[in-house]
Design brief:
54% helix; single chain; 3-stranded parallel β-sheet; flat; mainly alpha; two-stranded antiparallel ribbon; 241 residues
């Protein structure tokens, strides 16, 4: 692919703490991606801890001291690289950046103000943006991890955004999970060379139960035919059309 236009492939990794073996893994991954796609890769390492961010930003030279064969220079995003967004107006103008701000400043004293601003910004979204709001809610929860800020976020969601926790929102999330699992199952069967008829494909895509699809996926890891995948095992026959 012609890369004269400056295009590149961005690989994103979240790093919770320094790991001595990680630079070698990153170098391997970037080299593999470049060899496969022929697109210049950039590694973005996201660190919520300042010490980890400082560690990850160091250049690592691979090769003998006399002749460096490869240099690894990750692009690092840490708490000092993303602003604290604690104004509801600012949060509403850039919700994705506010989600990132909450994740990277989750242990800072200002984390509560960021989360309150984000909750108000999400509350201002229209009903038509329910899917978008749900995505931001879940991304924020994942980014906060097992911190005190995560407890505040769950409280804010229960009190201020009950609309987005409605039956409609829960149904949409379940449908999204089912669709994703159906795609994963079809990819797995194709990768393993298992023949999938049009009828089988329709059955998989039409199944709206994530648990049933998960069961089929586990069977597909060793099955040699779709008949084995669909073989009845208790709840296996309870797939929803």
């Amino acid at each position: 692919m012609n890369t004269e236009d400056g295009s590149f492939l961005l690989a994103v990794e979240s790093q919770g703490r320094p790991a001595p073996d990680k630079p070698a893994s990153w170098a391997y991954y970037l080299s593999y991606v470049y060899a496969k796609y022929r697109i210049p890769p950039v590694l973005l390492v996201v660190c919520a801890d300042r010490g980890t961010a400082e560690w990850a930003a160091r250049q690592v030279d691979i090769g003998p001291r006399q002749w460096c064969s490869l240099s690894l220079r990750p692009l690092v995003l840490g708490p000092d690289d993303v602003p604290v967004i604690d104004s509801p107006d600012d949060a509403a103008r850039d919700i994705p950046l506010t989600v990132l701000s909450a994740a990277l400043h989750r242990r800072d004293p200002g984390a509560d103000a960021i989360l309150n601003a984000l909750a108000k910004a999400l509350k201002g979204l229209s009903a038509d943006d329910e899917n978008t709001a749900t995505t931001f809610i879940e991304l924020t929860e994942q980014g906060l991890g097992a911190t005190q800020a995560a407890e505040l976020w769950r409280h804010l969601m229960a009190v201020d955004l009950s609309f987005f926790q409605s039956q409609t929102a829960q149904q949409l999330r379940a449908e999204g999970r089912a669709e994703s699992r159906a795609k994963d199952l079809l990819l797995l069967l194709g990768h393993r060379g298992v023949e999938v008829s049009e009828e089988d494909r329709e059955r998989i895509v039409g199944c709206g139960d994530p648990d049933v699809l998960g069961l089929w996926f586990r069977k597909a890891l060793t099955a040699t035919s779709t008949a084995e995948v669909f073989a009845s095992e208790g709840e296996a026959g309870a797939d929803a059309g």
